[in-house]
Amino acid sequence: MSDGSGSAEEEGGVLPSRRVVLALGAAAASTVVTVRPALAQTAGSVLNCEIPVPAPQSGAGQFIAADGSLVPAGTAGAYPPLARPLKGEEVRSMLNSGRAPAGVNGEAAQAYANYIRRLQAGMSGFTCYASLQMPR
Amino acid sequence: MAASLYAADPPGTMRRVELEGLTLLYHRPSGLTHFLAPPAPQILEALAAGPASPAEIAARIGETFEIESEDPAAAIAARLAELEAAGLVRRA
């Protein structure tokens, strides 16, 4: 038994705060394992998949603002929907190097790129975008 | 030379499930699922407050945890490299 000061605290209902110890591990340890879905495994299928901008089910006729959000048609500073879906290859070079697809100006391409970055599971083009994101 | 700053996507872009010491994390933007062991989840939590250097991340984690490491910044840099390769962290 010690001097009893700890038990006095416990009797009073005040427990000393205990901080959890967190080991950071050795440099060679591994703490991340990634599960990759079997999406478009070949380079060809990734580059040929398509992303409509915007997805027809959520944004038909809507414009795309600079931050990638969908806004009503005609909104100032926003860009009209693309007449054709973008190919995976175009999206990859747009996201990686900022190169605008043929027929699209640079500022509009940035808005379209931001729209694509916001895609979520279930939206048209998400699977294509996820495939492009996958580390090789 | 200034240390690199690292950033992570906001917590709302990820779905987390705790599994007895491991964290199962679904990253919505990439559609990828990751198993994380400590201290990787704690690093992501630290980055939720904004971009930070390895030393700043160690300081943020130290507010909640007792860190056990001879060289916290070096250990965190090694963990950050893993998280970066998995697409969960990027240079800010």
Structure description:
The complex is a heterodimer of chains A (136) and B (92). In chain A, β4 and β5 (70-71) form a beta hairpin. Chain A contains six helices and six strands, in the order αββαβαβββααα. Chain A has a domain at 43-133. Chain A has a two-stranded antiparallel sheet. Chain A has a two-stranded antiparallel sheet with strand order 4-5. Chain A is an alpha+beta fold and 136 residues long. Chain A has helices at residues 5-11, 43-48, 56-59, 88-97, 106-117, 126-133; strands spanning 20-23, 32-35, 50-51, 63-64, 70-71, 86-87. With 92 residues, chain B is of the alpha+beta class. Chain B has one domain. In chain B, 34% of the residues lie in helices and 29% in strands. Chain B is built from three helices and six strands. In chain B, the strands form two sheets. In chain B, strands 2-3-4 form a three-stranded antiparallel beta sheet, with no helix packed on it. Chain B has a two-stranded antiparallel sheet with strand order 1-6. In chain B, β2 and β3 (22-27) form a beta hairpin. In chain B, α1 packs across α2 (54-62). The longest helix of chain B has 14 residues, at 72-85. Chain B starts with 5 loop residues before the first strand and ends with a strand. The mean pLDDT of chain B is 89. The interface between A and B is medium-sized, with 30 and 33 residues.
Helix content of chain A: 25-40%
Number of strands of chain A: 6
Task: Sketch the major β-sheet of chain B.
Answer: 3 strands, antiparallel
**Spatial ordering of strands, largest sheet of chain B:** 2-3-4
- Helix segment tally of chain B: 3
Sequence of secondary-structure elements of chain A: HEEHEHEEEHHH
